[in-house]
Specification:
By secondary structure, the chain is mainly β. The protein has one domain. It contains no helices and nine strands. Strands 1-7-8-9-2-4-5 form a seven-stranded antiparallel beta sheet, with no helix packed on it. It has a two-stranded antiparallel ribbon with strand order 3-6. Strand 4 and strand 5 form a beta hairpin. The two termini are about 25 Å apart. About 35% of the residues are buried.
Length: about 140
């Protein structure tokens, strides 16, 4: 069973590369909701959400087969409660999960990346240092 986790700061600079070496692209994102139907926690592949709803206005991620990654995210804000429309001073990372297995609690450093030859079931989560997810990237097929 292959598990690939890629972590990068959202402020990471873009790299130029050919489209043919792209492993995955994410274009757009959805914010997290802490609960799902029936009051159950809205975990994604074993990763718990942040404690409040979150929204994100834009996200674009390109992940290359050689491990290079470019991330451009904008407008990650709390979507409810007394701190609505703030970012709560969060520091976040983008985490790519390539299987349905549960990823590590905290993403590895970028120099520890081992990319699979393919990523049949990609999920990209925007997570904080504690591991909670706030937004999910939309794969561009």
């Amino acid at each position: 069973m292959k598990l690939a986790v890629i972590a990068a700061a959202l402020s990471l600079a873009a790299f130029s590369a050919n489209a043919d070496d792209r492993l995955i692209r994410f274009d757009g994102a959805i914010g997290s909701q802490p609960l799902r139907a029936g009051g159950l926690v809205n975990d994604v592949r074993g990763v718990a959400p942040g404690g409040r709803p979150w929204v994100i206005s834009s996200l674009r991620v390109d992940i290359r087969t050689d491990g290079r990654i470019s991330v451009d995210g904008r407008g990650l804000l709390i979507g409810g409660g007394d701190t609505v429309a703030s970012n709560a001073n969060q520091s976040v990372k983008a985490t790519l999960i390539c299987t349905t297995a549960t990823p590590p609690a905290v993403p590895p450093l970028i120099d520890e990346i081992k990319l699979p030859a393919e990523c049949p079931s990609p999920v990209l989560l925007i997570r904080n240092a504690g591991g909670a997810w706030f937004a999910a990237g939309i794969p561009k097929l």
